Amino acid sequence: MRLKQNPTLRRALHCSVLAAAVFAFSGASDPSTRFNELGHQLMCICSCGQILLECNHVGCPDSDGMRNELMAAVSRGDSDSLVQQAFVQKYGPTVLAAPTTTGFDRTAWIMPFVVLLAGIGFVVYIVRSWKNKPAPALADGLTPVRGAELDEFREQARKETDL
Amino acid sequence: MAQIGSFALLLALALSVYSFGVGLLALIFKDDPDWNRLGETARRAGVVVFPAVLLAALVLVVSAFRNDFSIAYIYHHSNRDLDAKYKFATLWSGQEGSLVFWSLLLSGYAFVLRLRYKTDPRLFAYASVILAGVQVFFFALVNIAANPFGLLEGPLRADGTGLNPLLQYPEMVIHPPMLYLGYVGTTIPFAFALGALIMKYPGDKWIHITRRWTMVTWGFLTIGIFLGAHWAYAVLGWGGYWGWDPVENASLMPWLVGTAFLHSVMMQEKRGMLKVWNMWLVFASFWLAILGTFLTRSGIISSVHAFAQSSIGPWFGWFLALTFAVFVFFFVQNHKHLRSEHKLEAVVSRESSFMFNNLLFCALCFTVLWGTWFPKISEWVQGNKVTVSAPFYNRVAIPVALLLVVLTALGPLLAWGKTSFESLKRNFMWPSVGAVITAIFLMATPPSWGGAFGLRPWQDVSYFYSLMAISLAVMCTLTIASEFYRGGRVISEKTGQGMFASMVQLTHRNTRRYGGYIVHFGVVVVIIGVAGGAFNIDKEQEMAYGDKMSLGPYTLLCRSYTDEEFPNYDAQWAVLDVFKDGRQIDTLTPERRFYKASQQTSTMPFIRSSLKEDLYVVYEGLNQDNGHPILKAHLNPLVMWIWLGVWIIIGGTVLALVPNAPAPVRVAVPRTLEHAAPVPAGD
């Protein structure tokens, strides 16, 4: 309702959708950008261990042909996955510069984040449990300093130990 | 000569075996005075190992200079016309020699440690025996499986096959020694840690001793890694400095874990926390260094560093298993000794930031380890190899690295124990504002300014990462600057000195803390350099006389081609005039070499560096169809910042190793508490 009544808000929403669309599709149909992007997702198979577009061997028996094939595929308008499939079929799975996101290859992508998240969970658990530990008992007659007074002491100590 | 070298290596092995065996028995029967005396002989035998292996190394180098091609190693890694500096580097140019060099450095470290045993005789005795155990492994390796003094069968060769052309670059003389000093150096903290674990060392003195060794080792490893990156950039000719090759990854892993340790060790020193964790980090750093060597030399994982592959992989495999078993055994037996009282006062504290810092470093290390091994794991599981290259690491490691930069900015602002929200807000506001202004500025500037200007983060994820990296780098810089400023201001107010002099005094009074900040600043500068990689552009073109190539704001004009013959290689140059805004600014001479002995070609790119960008031109050779020369030019923004950042990191590390200057003594006035002597510096 508010959207209908408020043209500024409506215009802002349109702009956001347009910006999102531009962000999502920008460069996707530009052949040279696609060639560059796809060329950096493929490996040269001459056993130089380099990304296809970074293989710098003049007289390399493979890279020129591969680049031409890639350029032809991009010019035909083949989709990214079709181009990659064609290269895998011809040169084998090692032609892809990174594991795919299917089958067992998926674990390559997942594991680092699983480990990171598990680590974050563990650290949070440890930090909370250490924080919730009861403070050691004070000797008789001593009263712990708390609140603003404690913060003031901390700030003073920090200033002094900074030196 | 070969016999002298072989004998020296055999002697070093015998002395190491004695040092290990007798030293171990002396520790077992430590209450027996006779065994104590024998323990001293074990230490002395360990000291003599160094001159013995030094002799072997010298024999190898002298053999290279004398062109003694009867020695197979010299024949395969040198030739008569090889430049003197590369003949010297023959020692670490190949498998066998580099293992002798490794043994030499290990014995050098052990030599220093054994001479300084009076610092803590009991702990040093344990460390010495553990080191001797590692020495026995390496000397067994160079005596049995990879002897560099093996003689060539058949008639004596007139000349050697020469050194791999890619290795004939000045950094060959310094990169491997630095990297090896880093790798080998991890053995020393490991020896102290395991020794302290076995003997249930009372207190934390071992960690103070270990920390300095770790900093030295970390410094060497850092230099080694960046020298390798620079070498790759200056020689390989693909326009990049880091290719995520397994061998590069192998050097990164112990560095990441070592960096985590250098942070978490402060938790143990200040708060007596993380004793178990630190013990494992020290072990992991050593173990990963050996694992890296295993990867480099076993051939188990494909790498462009194939020149170092051989059949000694199983030796390293067994050694890794053995060291792991020994460490786990003693850890299980003695871990109760490492118990400490963990108590955190607040979640927002320096302690928590160190915990997350360690988590991120270890997560990065795991990512690199996982990515390096995944091709092999994939082969085991699904029967086919896959490639794990730059696109994988860029997508997985960069977000984690950016989180680390955030922590680098935030960490110094957090106090030990507890940080009030007000204090955090006050200290963090200006760095955050600086980061936001930087991001807006980079996006608002016109793209025609080139490089990182006119950044459009919505166009490509790499641009987004670059924007984040540069903005966070600015935030870190402001945080560091504010730390210097606030400390300097307090001293300035108390002493009346100028601000700069006060900041210098501040740094002298806590070199470790402020040296650490300088290291952080160096890392920030490196990050800015790396962020420039998102804007690299390149162009390849056939260029005959008078042809032009445009790249960014530059125009290259091909003036001529020339060649020259040198004793070791034939060289061809392209001579290119560089124009910018219609004005000639330079002449470039990218080179291509043909090495006679090895019959191999190599490129020597010409790099015109400035703070803004590198113009990197490679003479790739001749088109085989029409004979036209082909040149490839890269425009790589901000690369020089990486090398500048490394110098800052080195400076910060050296500063952190300098002992603190004593704080000036002040006489407290009894009735006015506010004039009491300041508390000595803390970290």
What does this structure look like?
The complex is a heterodimer of chains A (163) and B (683). With 163 residues, chain A is an all-alpha fold. Chain A has 2 domains: 2-98, Orthogonal Bundle (Helicase, Ruva Protein, domain 3), CATH 1.10.8; 105-161, no CATH class. In chain A, 61% of the residues lie in helices and 0% in strands. Chain A has 7 helices and no strands. Chain A is elongated and about 85 Å long. Mean pLDDT of chain A is 78; it is low at 21-28. Chain B is α+β, with helices and mostly antiparallel strands and 683 residues long. Chain B has 4 domains: 1-159; 164-344 and 357-394, no CATH class; 395-534 and 641-675, no CATH class; 538-639, no CATH class. Chain B has 19 helices and 10 strands. In chain B, a hairpin with a 2-residue loop joins β4 (569-580) and β5. In chain B, α9 runs antiparallel to α19 (639-657) and α13 runs antiparallel to α14 (390-410). Chains A and B meet through α2, α6 and α7 of A and α13, α14, α16 and β9 of B.
Summing up helix and strand content along with how strands pair, one would put the structural category of chain A as mainly alpha
Helix content of chain B: 55-70%
Number of domains of chain B: 4
Discrete helix count of chain B: 19
Characteristic key phrases:
heterodimer, A: 163 residues, Helicase, Ruva Protein, domain 3, 7 helices, B: 683 residues, alpha+beta, 6-stranded antiparallel β-sheet, 4-stranded antiparallel β-sheet, globular
